[in-house]
Specification:
41% strand, eight-stranded antiparallel barrel, glycoprotein, fatty acid biosynthesis, alpha+beta, single chain, Lipocalin
Length: 185
């Protein structure tokens, strides 16, 4: 009986280690339907930069397009002072549809990005595992096609973020700026 118990404890520990790999990905993911403009409605993260910048963060736009070789070009705008700053990233697709990788040479970080769930015309929930020399962090983004989302979707975002081990104070619904489109004119 003791052996069985130890075996179960081992399985639980193994489960905890594999938890990051259990992040779901949208079934039958259709990449072409994800393209277009999104608003970042919610952001959750346990990274240090998020803790420092959390008070200043506002809702911004993200435009997703497909590159010729089937990867995703992601153009995000971030409020910086009274302007929006643009940032371009190339998400490389992996063998698993809905899962992408991205490397940021400037910060020396690698990103494992998963489209967890989406209905393409209303919302998308995206989870990113970020690893760099100093350790790893988790980020969850809630995208919306409009500046408003139902309470149900916001609650799903909070719930999913908690499932990823994030705390209440690491989960943020982003305030609107009225300037979301500035950087994309």
């Amino acid at each position: 009986a003791q052996g069985v118990l130890l075996g179960m404890v081992g399985l639980v520990l193994l489960g905890a280690l594999q938890a990051q790999d259990d992040v779901p990905v949208q079934r039958d993911f259709q990449q072409d339907k994800l393209v277009g403009r999104w608003y970042s409605i919610g952001l959750a993260s346990n990274s240090n930069w998020f803790k420092e910048k959390k008070q200043l963060m506002k809702m911004c736009t993200t435009v997703i397009s497909s590159s010729a070789d089937g990867n995703l070009e992601v153009t995000s705008t971030y409020p910086k002072g009274d302007q929006c700053e643009k940032r371009n990233s190339l998400y490389t697709r992996t063998e698993q549809p809905g899962r992408f990788s991205y490397s940021n040479p400037r910060w020396g970080s690698k990103h494992d990005i998963r489209v967890v769930e989406t209905n393409y015309d209303e919302y998308a929930l995206v989870a990113t595992q970020i690893s760099k020399g100093s350790g790893s962090s988790t980020m969850v983004l809630l995208y919306s096609r409009t500046k408003e989302l139902s309470a149900e979707r916001l609650e799903r975002f909070r719930q999913f973020s908690k499932e990823q081990g994030l705390r209440d104070d690491e989960i943020l619904i982003l305030p609107q700026t009225g300037e979301e489109l500035m950087g994309l004119r």
